[in-house]
């Protein structure tokens, strides 16, 4: 028997997956309730550890739901470890779970020994205050809202599972989301950055290519790290974005055959400058035997943390603002909007959004410069010519007729016909 990364899921000597768990004590016999299985509810053998874990989670949830309030004194920590966190893991992508796991554990630790049914309004309110207060965690409003929202969802599940009658956190005011503006590089910023990179050095050449491709395509960070040379079509001048990379370290990664959303799978047109930069880099990579990942110096994929360090290094050298890795995606949107006044529909498709509304939600503030440009182009666009004499006799309000209006010359923009 070998264990897997999923608690309660093992592999037997024949390499087949199965789950085994204890659900508690039978209140009649006093014996431990154990469950073990090799097939899902439809009788299909498990083909992966994840499938076995998903079935195990379903069985646990069904058992606890059927038992109602049997485990009356369960603590919040026990509920999170045995019910909510395992269920959450089966419902989201692994990358999402890994990014949220620490948050869930910190929420758990806050109330770890508190009986679930003993949570009070005061405890929840104090937690909300602590998340936002400078004397407490001092998180930003958006991050505090994320944490508090996840806490509320955990209690929603406790209600659904019949551990609780009501969600006490719903009596506490939610933390409203604040619109986060992601810092980005302007065209001038980007020009300053690439001016500090020496292409003679192999590693700096990689840095240049990585920054250039992100800036000129707007791909998501884990879409870029997943790019293989097979995704670049030099003949049709296209970049295929069909994968995302899930990484723990340089030697423990998974290249998934899908993107963040269904609409994320897309093909992006490439400009000639980008194609030439990629062509030169591909040839240089091949000289040392690298023919898979575009962003690699040793055949292994680039870590997200490495990208952040590269950005920080060159931002400091160039004297421009430091941005996050995802800021390069926002930089691409800014570049297209401010330099080419690209339409929201085209930008939406290029960014892999499910709808133009999503694009506007994230990037509407970037079109502010376009408004000033339009105002400049409107100046003088309409020819203003007015009549030298009246064409009708006014017979309206006598009070207005009695007013002696001053005669003023027309402005330069106004001409008489």
- CATH superfamily placement of the domain at 187-370: Intergrase catalytic core
What is the architecture of the domain at 187-370 at the second tier of CATH?
Orthogonal Bundle
What overall form do the CA principal axes indicate?
Answer: globular
Can you tell me the residue ranges where pLDDT is under 50 for at least 5 consecutive residues? none
| E-strand count | 11
CATH class of the domain at 187-370: Mainly Alpha
What's the Cα radius of gyration?
30 Å
| Strand composition percent | 5-15%
Distance between the termini: 96 Å
Largest beta sheet: what is the strand line-up? 1-2-3-4
Keywords: DNA integration, DNA recombination, DNA-binding
Protein name: Site-specific integrase
Pfam families: Phage_int_SAM_3, Phage_integrase
Domain Tyr recombinase: 180-379
Account of the 3D structure:
- This protein is an alpha+beta fold and 417 residues long.
- It has a domain at 187-370: hpI Integrase, Chain A (Orthogonal Bundle).
- The chain has 15 helices and eleven strands.
- It has helices at 49-67, 76-91, 94-110, 121-132, 141-160, 187-194, 202-217, 221-224, 272-286, 304-318, 327-340, 344-351, 356-363, 368-378, 398-401; strands at 2-3, 9-11, 17-25, 32-37, 232-233, 238-241, 244-249, 252-256, 266-269, 385-386, 415-416.
- Strands 1-2-3-4 form a four-stranded antiparallel sheet, with helices on one face. The protein has a three-stranded antiparallel sheet with strand order 5-6-9, with no helix packed on it. A two-stranded antiparallel ribbon has the order 7-8.
- Helix 1 crosses helix 2 (76-91), helix 7 (202-217) runs antiparallel to helix 9 and helix 7 packs across helix 11.
- The longest helix is centred in the middle third of the chain and has 20 residues, at 141-160.
- It is globular.
- The mean pLDDT is 86.
């Amino acid at each position: 028997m070998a264990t897997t990364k999923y608690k309660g899921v093992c592999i037997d000597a024949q390499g087949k997956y199965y789950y085994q768990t204890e659900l508690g004590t039978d209140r009649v016999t006093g014996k431990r309730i154990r469950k073990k299985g090799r097939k899902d509810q439809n009788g299909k053998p498990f083909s992966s550890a994840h499938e076995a874990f998903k079935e195990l989670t379903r069985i646990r949830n069904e058992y606890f739901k059927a038992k109602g309030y049997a485990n009356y004194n369960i603590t919040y920590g026990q509920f999170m470890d045995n019910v909510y966190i395992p269920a959450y893991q089966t419902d989201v992508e692994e990358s999402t779970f890994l990014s949220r796991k620490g948050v869930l554990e910190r929420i758990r630790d806050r109330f770890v020994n508190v009986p679930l049914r003993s949570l009070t309004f005061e405890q929840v309110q104090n937690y909300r205050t602590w998340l936002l207060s400078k004397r407490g965690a001092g998180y930003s409003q958006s991050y505090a809202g994320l944490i508090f929202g996840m806490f509320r969802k955990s209690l929603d599940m406790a209600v659904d599972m019949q551990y609780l009658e009501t969600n006490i956190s719903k009596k506490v005011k939610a933390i409203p989301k604040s619109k986060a503006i992601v810092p980005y590089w302007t065209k001038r910023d980007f020009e300053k950055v690439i001016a500090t990179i020496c292409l003679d050095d192999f590693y700096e050449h990689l840095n240049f290519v990585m920054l250039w491709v992100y800036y000129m395509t707007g791909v998501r960070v884990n879409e870029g790290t997943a790019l293989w040379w097979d995704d670049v079509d030099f003949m049709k001048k296209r970049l295929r974005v069909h994968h995302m990379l899930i990484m723990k370290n340089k030697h423990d990664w998974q290249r998934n055959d899908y993107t963040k959303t269904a609409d994320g799978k897309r093909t992006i047109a490439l400009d000639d400058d980008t194609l030439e930069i990629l062509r030169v880099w591909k040839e240089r990579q091949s000289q040392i035997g690298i023919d898979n990942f575009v962003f690699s110096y040793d055949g292994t994929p680039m870590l997200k943390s490495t990208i952040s360090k590269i950005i920080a290094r060159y931002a400091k050298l160039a004297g421009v603002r430091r941005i996050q890795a995802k800021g390069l995606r926002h930089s691409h949107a800014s570049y297209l909007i401010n330099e080419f006044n690209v339409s929201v529909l085209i930008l939406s498709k290029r960014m892999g959004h499910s709808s133009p509304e999503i694009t506007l939600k994230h990037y509407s503030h970037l079109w502010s410069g376009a408004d000033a440009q339009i105002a400049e182009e409107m100046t003088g666009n309409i020819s203003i010519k007015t009549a030298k004499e009246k064409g009708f006799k006014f017979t309206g309000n006598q009070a207005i007729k009695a007013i002696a209006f001053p005669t003023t010359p027309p402005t330069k923009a106004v001409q008489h016909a």
